[in-house]
Q: What sequence folds into this?
């Protein structure tokens, strides 16, 4: 009920960009898409150039770019699935000359294939590519820094969600552990996390099932439900917050391993992902 209500409300105003992060050198704005997706604009304030992250509804994105008087130069595609890369072919017709980045040859309209630790620029902003295979074999997260005093951000597609993670369509529990804990988990704790879908309430209900005694889960779920009732997004979170309530980033914790009836982090990751695949939130 909570998710369907949010989806219906989001659908009413899909052409309005909504501000997520503002700083002296960068802004992040989001635009709801499809039923529960997020498209993002990463904006370099100095040059007013921007990159689009997973622009699956290109006409709506271009309308928003033009309204904001921005110059779209780059597309950062997290993975090849249609609800993330499916707008690329139309977008390059609407905005010729775009640099379409991704980590997989299956990404539509790809012009620049990137891999782990590759870097690119959006105006003055530095974008670092983080390879996080599992949901798909070519999944890339994009870590963005500006000036030293600004909070970094990361666009995580379908690898890391608020309170959850993506299904293991083309990978293993070991790969997702490395993606979440070793790669994303090594980013500064204050890094803002922008994920690809509005799944937060469902994810946190599962997290509460895994750790019913975790107050961070309870508090975040209460907050997320209030956001949904108020027609507001739940993005972004932070890396440090995810370590406090996301069971897939807490697989080293005894409480999560006990729930999974496993004795190590990788087996726990496999167990709770399999359980989540069939979990029905009440």
A:
């Amino acid at each position: 009920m909570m998710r369907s209500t949010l989806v219906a409300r989001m659908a009413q105003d899909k052409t309005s960009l909504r501000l997520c992060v503002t700083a002296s050198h960068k802004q992040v704005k989001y635009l709801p898409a499809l039923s529960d997706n997020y498209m993002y604009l990463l904006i370099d304030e100095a040059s007013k150039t921007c990159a689009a992250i997973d622009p699956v509804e290109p006409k709506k994105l271009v309308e928003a770019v033009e309204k904001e008087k921005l110059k779209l130069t780059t597309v950062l595609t997290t993975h090849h699935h249609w609800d993330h890369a499916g707008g690329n072919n139309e977008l390059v017709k609407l905005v010729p000359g775009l640099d379409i980045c991704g980590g997989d040859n299956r990404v539509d309209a790809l012009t620049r294939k990137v891999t782990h630790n590759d870097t690119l620029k959006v105006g003055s902003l530095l974008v670092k590519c983080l390879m996080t295979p599992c949901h798909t074999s070519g999944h890339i997260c994009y870590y963005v820094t500006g000036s030293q005093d600004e909070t970094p951000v990361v666009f995580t597609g379908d690898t890391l969600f608020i309170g959850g993670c993506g299904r293991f369509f083309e990978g293993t529990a070991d790969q997702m552990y490395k993606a979440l804990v070793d790669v994303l988990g090594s980013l500064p704790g204050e890094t803002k996390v922008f994920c690809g879908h509005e799944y937060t309430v469902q994810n946190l209900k599962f997290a509460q099932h895994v750790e019913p005694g975790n107050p961070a889960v309870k508090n975040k779920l209460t907050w997320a439900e209030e956001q949904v009732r108020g027609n507001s997004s739940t993005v972004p979170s932070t890396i440090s917050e995810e370590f406090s309530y996301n069971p897939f980033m807490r697989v080293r914790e005894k409480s999560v391993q006990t729930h999974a009836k496993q004795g190590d982090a990788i087996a726990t990751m496999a167990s709770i992902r399999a359980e989540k695949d069939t979990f029905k939130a009440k």
